[in-house]
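FAQ: What does a multi-protein file look like?

Like this. Sequence, then tokens, then the next protein.
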Amino acid sequence: MSKNLENMSEELVQKAKTFGATSAESTVVQNKSLTLETKNTKLEKVETAESLELGLRVFINSQSASVSISNFNSDAIDEMILRAIAMAKEAIPDELSGPADINQILSSWNMKSFELFDITYDDQNFEKYKNLALEVESAALEVTDISQSESAGFSSNYSNFHFTTSNGFSSGYQRTAFGLYCSAIAGTGSSMERDFASEGRTFFNDLPSASSIGLLAANRATARLKPKRPPTGLYPVLFDQRISSSLIGHLTAAINGMAICRGSSWLLGSLNKKILPENLSLCEDPNRPRIAGSRPFDAEGLPTTQKNFVENGVLKNYILDLRSARKLNLEPLGNAYRSLASAPQPGVGNLELSPGNSTCEQLLGNIKSGLLVTSLIGATINQNTGDYSRGANGFWIENGQVAFPVNECTIAGNLKEMLLNVIAGNDGKSHLSKVVPSLLIEKMTVASR
């Protein structure tokens, strides 16, 4: 199929040029997925899906348009190309858009070193995967106070794609992903609480045991029983490793090239200025083997490289695709992403925030009175000022110990101040694409709802 994808992608670009496009880019994507869910110790759902889709971006000089299709009939493809060209002719000219220069695109790499494809992938072994899902649920149901599982299951995904541009780039690769998950419900009646656990890996044999997933979900759910509302005031807030990456997500959104170009970022004008404590750096490494966010080239054919966005607390780079780099007169960094029917946009895959010196338990132990946040609800983020407000659940801390579970509270602050004074733990998970440890903000507003 890989050869077929390559042929289809290259033929599409050539046909677009023949039909009048100045230049063109095409992506052909094949996906297969399998999901099995159990409930009440019985198999409740089996879902399989297969798709083959094609995306095309055409240029008429500085005008462009993007379309996609899932019908590979020759007449339908011709119609799609003509429609894309007609759309491009009506588009507003944009001198900053356009394919990469030939000297910018990736010329060679060692795909095997990325280890993104598990050759043992098998989407037909239903009995094996059903037993795993049942094992996850059974482990959860064995825990005292667990009244039922909301769902437990196994998932697998296979994807294969090929990307071609009229400036000479043509390549693709295969990728696999496997997951186990469980959502457990503790208590009964109006006193029920729910929590979950999930794990995903690129290689099937790297998955943790199914029973450990169910047990973790159950223990998290039972720990939330009999919640109380916290006091209102200014307190330390510790973001558990489960959700700490959300804070870094707000940072990367603020240094995204599109936000900078629009002037809608609370970190506007912060390049080469301190935005984190000097002991922290934020880097991207797209070449980590067996990691979901790894890739050899970006959505414009540029090589992906290791880089520091923040170095020793100082903002060193924005997250840039070609267009935003041209707009800001900076070098592109291989950070373009795209969907099949859209133009590229800046994005980021693997991230790692350098760890601090303390474990999560040590950070928690130093809190006299404060909040440990394990889940977040909703968000009100002012992209221009960095004002931050979110609903939160977790545990109230007294004298370094968990006092009681908490729900129905709001935490608020300003991201610029929060991140400039953040204290990092050392419990980041190395198998994740986003390796972010627990993060302590020493002063935030905590309010009962």
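And here is the next protein:
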Amino acid sequence: MIPFSPPRIDDVTTEAVVAALKSGWITTGPRTKQFEKEISAYCGHKTTVAVNSWTTGMQVLLAWWGIKEGDEVIIPAYTYCASANVIIHAGATPVMVDLNEGDFNLNAEKVRAAITPRTKAIMAVDISGFPADYDLLRILINETEIKNQFNPSNELQEKLGRILLLADAAHSFGALMNGGQATLQSDIATYSFHAVKNLTTAEGGALCFNLPDSFDHDVIYKQMCTMILHGQNKDALAKTIKGNWKYDVEEPGFKCNMTDLQAAIGLVELNRYQESLDRRQEIFRLYEKGFSNVDWALLPTFKTENKTSSYHLYLLRIKGISEDQRDSIIQEIYDCDVSVNVHFQPLPLLTAYKKRGFKMDNYPEAYKKYANEISLPVYFDLTNEQVQTVINAVIKSVAKIMNKEFVTPYS
């Protein structure tokens, strides 16, 4: 069976974890601090805080920014539930918008229509690793009319003086835009290092800050490190200094610090990340070539004049099929011993958001993309021969369900 997205765990990885275990540092320690610095250096962020998951990191971030009951945060209707869940847990309201026609990202003009005086943030989601339209969103939030209706509720929001632009970059570590890292286009980028991501720490994530220079990013780093450790102002590493045992708890905080065991994996992954990106791009090109001679294949956008994906997910769509037919095709592919997936079920299809009044009919583009989408395996150790097996399985399965003539895939 060809798996969907196994992590790259080899001798280099295990040796790094064993070294961390033998060092005595298994919680937040020197490896975590090094990992933070190397992420900032790789991406160009002003400061980085490593956390134990994207979700808890974003929860802390929303609390720090003062997102609360009565506030609104705009997100795409097409994303994983975590993007909306954290907003609900903050007491605020997720405001969903539909997608672009050409890709899976939120539509900037739909965002414009959704902005109200209660809007505190826009969370753009880089679905599959292809960057959202940050340039359009940044122009939008800086328009005089939009800024004039912004209603800050604390000093941080007042200092920024406009809607906060967040990047849900769970899929897009290493994606490019306008000649640099795509997430530098946002005010704050949030990464996931979950087991299935391009760069993994088993579980984990990072908060990366690109706020204007009027914000002191050294102060932000200290504040965030305190907030992710119950509000305690000294972590275990800081307390190793002789006589430095005494600490304070400045505010009731959260508990989501990254450990050195996680960071040990992340440092290995980061050191060879370009190699990983290059291989993933090669797999995308093989899929593109393999499906180029079938008329039903809607191929994903992964590179344009000013954007380059991180090649996280290959979102193949099949023209002219229903959701039920798509599900039948997936079953046929599985019967060929190939694992595939769907990314994602739009939020209004989920019970948690149906009962909060969200209706799928209001997001036709999101449903259209979901109903005929199949995510194909993409990972470093996937061989060219296995890619051909995937292509073959997909084409055979579509032909069977759609009663089409089987077309021999490119090889």
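Q: Is there any per-entry metadata?
A: Some entries carry free-text notes. For the entry above: Residues 274-402 form a domain with the Aspartate Aminotransferase, domain 1 fold (CATH 3.90.1150.10).
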